[in-house]
């Protein structure tokens, strides 16, 4: 009589979905995320569109968030995440601050039942971070969650 033992390994694979098109055309149930500086200037790039669409600059400033944290606005049934990745608008973010901001966003998502986030290629436009590194950090931060992330490109 022989006994065989099977070992089954199951790996959870975090996936980032990609969509071509306007970020603001995402489902209205998705929360949104992008990067800003502590001074909440939002004077260039996609940040200008966030400022026009959602306002709330004073509300963001009142939160007094620092680099590596996340400021949050609630608009309707969704959250708008402002990843604070640098001190001043003229500075460049670090990958470490990006990671810390994403961790802060993840904590807020888990505490508030957020399951879907849409975002641009965060930190990779005017801030010039490398998407291959940022997407790897995203994967590491969110791998143990069921939060779905969709990245929009034009």
UniProtKB/TrEMBL annotation:
Keywords: Acetylation, Chromosome, Hydrolase, Nucleus, Signal. Residues 1-21 form the signal peptide. CDD domains: Macro_Poa1p-like. One of its GO terms (cellular component) is nucleolus. It comes from the Eukaryota. It is found in: Chromosome; Nucleus, Nucleolus; Nucleus, Nucleoplasm. Residues 3-154 form the Macro domain. GO terms for biological process: peptidyl-glutamate ADP-deribosylation. Pfam families: Macro (PF01661). Its main location: nucleus. It catalyses: alpha-NAD(+) + H2O = ADP-D-ribose + nicotinamide + H(+). GO terms for molecular function: hydrolase activity. The keyword Hydrolase applies. ADP-ribose glycohydrolase that hydrolyzes ADP-ribose and acts on different substrates, such as proteins ADP-ribosylated on glutamate and O-acetyl-ADP-D-ribose. Specifically acts as a glutamate mono-ADP-ribosylhydrolase by mediating the removal of mono-ADP-ribose attached to glutamate residues on proteins. Does not act on poly-ADP-ribosylated proteins: the poly-ADP-ribose chain of poly-ADP-ribosylated glutamate residues must by hydrolyzed into mono-ADP-ribosylated glutamate by PARG to become a substrate for OARD1. This is ADP-ribose glycohydrolase OARD1.
């Amino acid at each position: 009589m022989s006994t065989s033992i099977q070992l089954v390994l199951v790996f959870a694979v975090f996936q980032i979905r990609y969509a071509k098109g306007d970020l603001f055309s995402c489902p209205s149930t998705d929360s949104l995320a992008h990067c800003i500086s502590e001074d909440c200037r939002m004077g260039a790039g996609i940040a200008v569109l966030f400022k026009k669409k959602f306002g709330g600059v004073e509300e963001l400033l009142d939160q007094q968030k620092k680099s590596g944290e996340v400021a949050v606005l609630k608009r309707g049934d969704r959250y708008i995440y402002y990843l604070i990745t640098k001190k001043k608008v003229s500075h460049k973010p670090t990958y470490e601050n990006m990671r810390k901001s994403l961790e802060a966003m993840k904590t807020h998502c888990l505490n508030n039942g957020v399951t879907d986030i849409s975002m641009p290629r965060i930190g990779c436009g005017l801030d010039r971070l490398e998407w291959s590194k940022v997407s790897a950090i995203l994967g590491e931060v969110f791998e143990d969650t069921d939060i779905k992330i969709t990245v929009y490109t034009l």
